[in-house]
């Protein structure tokens, strides 16, 4: 399958290591789609003009993710600050005057023509792409990471444009989780999934539930594990795997990410 990711790019700044790593949901998904065997992967986003943006581009080149249609503007890259506690990443803020906050993508016809050559477009709630989803949905299927955003009015407003939806639901009680799932089943997603921290993720295909099978692993850093899970699932599912097989391969993809620092490696001194 061929995947294009459109949206956020950042560097995750690990304060205890004084090192930063390239990341952002869409960049992480793009790189991990390539690592999971996608035939072609591209990325469109807004880069700053600082050395951190240069490092993200370097990593994308090394991973053979094309970004010829990305924009570059004057300004600083997103650079959330991170600490680790028992391998789990904790975000503790970062500068607000970044290019991701100051600028927004608006896709033009030539780009939509280019995007239509792919099988799937991945977007996230951090991409500020809500106004572009209808245009995108006219030329390609869309995967969307809602992360921890569970505002039902927001979800319903963009659900008609999305085939594959992903949510982080670790903080929900069993009762809250059940009620939320009932709301999601009523929406037109082909597949939706809910990650639950250390608990097995739940996947739903046309209303049928599948549960992830977890194996014990040694965790170095959970940064990007959910993005790696998404990429592993999408590539294998769209390549024709059954739901259980795609979920199993997605789990392996996430486990590999948990064994390294950063979303997909490439450390650089701050």
TrEMBL record:
The keyword Kinase applies. InterPro entries: Carboh/pur_kinase_PfkB_CS (IPR002173), PfkB_Carbo_kinase (IPR050306), PfkB_dom (IPR011611), Ribokinase-like (IPR029056). GO terms for molecular function: kinase activity. Belongs to the carbohydrate kinase PfkB family. It comes from Bacillus mesophilum. Residues 20-262 form the Carbohydrate kinase PfkB domain. PROSITE patterns: PFKB_KINASES_2. This is Carbohydrate kinase. Keywords: Kinase, Transferase. It holds the Pfam family PfkB. The keyword Kinase applies.
């Amino acid at each position: 399958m061929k995947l294009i990711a459109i949206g956020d790019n950042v560097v995750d700044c690990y304060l205890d290591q004084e090192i930063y790593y390239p990341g952002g949901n869409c960049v992480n998904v793009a790189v991990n789609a390539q690592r999971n065997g996608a035939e072609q992967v591209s990325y469109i986003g807004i880069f700053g003009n600082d050395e951190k943006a240069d490092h993200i581009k370097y990593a994308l080149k090394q991973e053979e993710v094309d970004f010829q249609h990305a924009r570059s503007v004057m300004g600083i890259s997103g650079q959330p600050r991170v600490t680790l506690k028992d391998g789990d990443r904790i975000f503790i803020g970062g500068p607000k005057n970044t290019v991701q906050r100051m600028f927004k993508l608006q896709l033009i016809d030539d780009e939509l023509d280019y995007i239509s050559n792919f099988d799937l477009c991945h977007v996230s709630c951090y991409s500020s792409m809500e106004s572009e989803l209808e245009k995108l949905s006219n030329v390609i299927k869309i995967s969307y990471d809602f992360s921890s955003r569970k505002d039902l009015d927001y979800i319903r407003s963009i659900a008609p444009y999305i085939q594959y939806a992903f949510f982080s639901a670790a903080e929900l009680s069993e009762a809250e989780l059940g009620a939320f799932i009932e709301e999601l089943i009523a929406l037109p997603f082909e597949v939706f999934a809910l990650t639950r921290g250390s608990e097995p993720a739940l996947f739903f295909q046309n209303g049928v539930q599948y549960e992830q099978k977890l194996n014990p692993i040694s965790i170095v850093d959970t940064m990007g594990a959910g993005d790696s899970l998404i990429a592993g699932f999408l590539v294998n599912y769209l390549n024709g795997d059954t739901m259980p097989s795609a979920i199993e391969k997605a789990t392996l993809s996430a486990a590999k990410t948990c064994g390294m620092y950063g979303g997909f490696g490439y450390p650089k001194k701050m």
